[in-house]
TrEMBL record:
Protein name, as recorded: Na+:solute symporter
Superkingdom field: Bacteria
Annotated organism of origin: Streptomyces pactum
InterPro entries for the chain: Na/Glc_symporter_sf, Na/solute_symporter, Sodium:Solute_Symporter_SSF
Sequence intervals crossing the membrane: 6-22, 74-93, 159-179, 186-205, 225-244, 274-295, 367-387, 399-419, 431-448, 460-479
Compositionally biased region (Low complexity): 503-515
Region (Disordered): 499-527
GO cellular component, one term: plasma membrane
Signal peptide: none
Length: 527
């Protein structure tokens, strides 16, 4: 990097902070901070949903998969995400939006207290927060790895720089700042991705051109859709996992659906995100597939290949723009995760731990949300310094094994609890499926994996926990139905069209005492 590249990078950081400051004016309470007050346009929500699913892991871990195996990186990653979001646009997006418009919640987990019970809500909230700390830590480590290639900064220095800048704009501006910066980041990504695509295509003339290049020995097997550990079982497992994860199971995407004005707008938002996931990664992945022709990775997993290729092919200025693109991915995802976890803590966890938190007003609640965001970012940055330790092994292991494997037990009760066919599943089904899914993850990844020669295949490591949770959730619901009138009332509120309350009025949910209760458990008598 030279002075021009540094100017582009510093200018980008300054613009992100400025957007956060501007967004601060639009945040008056926790509803604005966590769900943009339900006023976000569907197209902005869709772009934000798309961008919040990326990080620099794509340019490190997935770049390594593309370098080693080729097009399977698209077939087994972004394609199942696109398909999962497309399915979720009808199945989950409208219902998640109604959590805000009808049940008056600001956290995706807030409705679980009434849908199941308080212990279930707390179990999912705490485990979801802990998993997100590990997930975001992997993202910090990924961008710091890339930054070290270009600048020579240490891993910890890179984590500190990106974490502080992200913390400034997402803490003061909330979800509005996240979405607006993600819009700007999408434009930057578009320019940077096209620049890299063109630079690589121009180099292919020496290797048979755009179509003939696949015959090169360095790309042998790269055109095969399913190779190595990424076979048909992995694809099916990943599709099922991403159906839950990218439609709200990892919380931050759920907020994008909640931020739109009504259920129909949430559905349009999801469709836009699905189209972007289907088309845009092809442009980003193509240079990675061609990387073996152009550079020789210095790492066994090929995770540095994209960064090396960028340095080799792009002039200064454009190099800085691509580096900004790396940052845009990671900062988009980490800021949205921080906002989601702050919502879970301030709305779901803190009121249980403290009587004072139950009485938070507009100002005190907003202050708590911002402080929680800072604490979450700090914890994830601390964990990021350990991401290459023997516990985690490497970045891609954290993202694929830990996140995909642990997400299912958390997402199954949250997501399926919205749907009528699973109305019989109550707190017993939810807690049992959650606990046994976590136990299955530990067993299949550690004791069983260590005892089997060659280890348990990756597709089973990530899919078995979700499968265990799903089977138990459905089976226990059938054997021990807990579909009370109060729970059925919530399910009906999020499954029926016609009277969306875009202003966010609380839903009237009958209670055994004869009063009514909103989705966070505050009883209102006499309505």
């Amino acid at each position: 990097m030279n002075g021009l590249d540094w100017s582009v990078l510093i200018g980008y950081f300054a613009v992100m902070v400025a957007i956060g400051v501007w967004s601060h004016k639009r945040v008056d309470d926790v509803s604005d901070f966590f769900t943009a007050g339900g006023k976000m346009p569907w197209w902005l929500s869709g772009i934000s949903h798309h961008m919040s699913g990326y990080s620099a892991v794509m340019f490190t871990g997935y770049a390594g998969i593309a370098y080693t195996y080729g097009v399977t990186s698209f077939v087994t990653w972004s394609f199942p995400i696109a398909l999962g979001i497309a399915i979720g646009s009808r199945l989950f997006a409208p219902r998640i939006n109604r959590l805000r418009s009808r049940l008056h919640v600001a956290s995706p987990l807030e409705y679980l207290k009434n849908r199941y019970n308080l212990p279930t809500q707390q179990a999912l909230a705490w485990s979801g927060m802990l998993l997100k700390i590990v997930d975001v830590a992997a993202k910090w480590a990924a961008i710091a790895t890339l930054l070290s290639v270009f600048t020579g900064l240490s891993l910890n220095q890179g984590i500190l720089i990106t974490g502080i800048v992200t913390g400034v704009y997402c803490t003061i501006g909330g979800l509005w700042a996240d979405a607006l910066t993600e819009l700007g980041q999408f434009v930057i990504q578009l320019l940077a991705g096209i620049a890299m695509f063109v630079a690589v295509v121009m180099k292919l003339g020496d290797h048979g051109g755009f179509f003939g290049v696949w015959d090169e020995p360095e790309l042998q097997g790269h055109a095969e859709p399913l190779v190595g550990p990424y076979g048909a079982v992995f694809l099916l497992a990943y599709l099922f996992i991403k159906l839950f994860e990218y439609n709200g199971g990892m919380l931050n995407q759920a907020q994008r659906y909640m931020a739109t004005s009504n259920a129909r707008e949430a559905e349009r938002s999801a469709r836009l995100s699905a189209v972007l996931w289907l088309v845009w990664p092809l442009v980003l992945f193509f240079p990675m597939w061609m990387a073996p022709l152009l550079v020789e990775s210095q790492k066994a997993d090929g995770s540095d290949s994209y960064a090396l290729m960028t340095e080799q092919l792009l002039p200064h200025g454009l190099l800085g723009l691509v580096i900004v693109g790396f940052f845009s991915h990671t900062m988009a995802m980490c800021s949205s995760d921080a906002n989601a976890i702050a919502a879970v803590f301030t709305r779901d966890v803190a009121p249980v731990l403290s009587t004072r938190a139950r009485a938070w007003g507009r100002r005190s609640g907003l202050l708590a949300a911002r402080l929680t965001t800072v604490v979450f970012l700090g914890l994830s940055m601390a964990v990021a310094t350990q991401v290459d330790s023997p516990t985690f092994k490497d970045i891609i292991t954290v993202v694929i094994k830990w996140v995909a494997g642990l997400m299912g037990p958390i997402a199954i009760p949250m997501m399926l609890g919205l749907l009528r066919p699973f109305r019989r599943s109550g707190p017993t089904a939810a807690l049992t499926s959650w606990a046994m899914g976590l136990l299955a993850f530990w067993l299949v990844n550690y004791p069983i994996n260590w005892s089997v020669e060659g280890g348990v295949p990756l597709e089973y490591q990530v899919s078995i926990p979700l499968a265990v949770s799903l089977v138990l959730y459905v089976l226990i619901g059938f054997l021990k139905p807990e579909d009370t009138p109060e729970r059925l009332a919530i399910i009906e509120r999020v499954n029926t069209d016609g009277d969306d309350d875009a202003s966010g009025a609380a839903a009237a949910i009958p209670t055994p005492s004869g009063g009514v209760e909103d989705a966070v458990g505050r009883t209102r008598v006499g309505d």
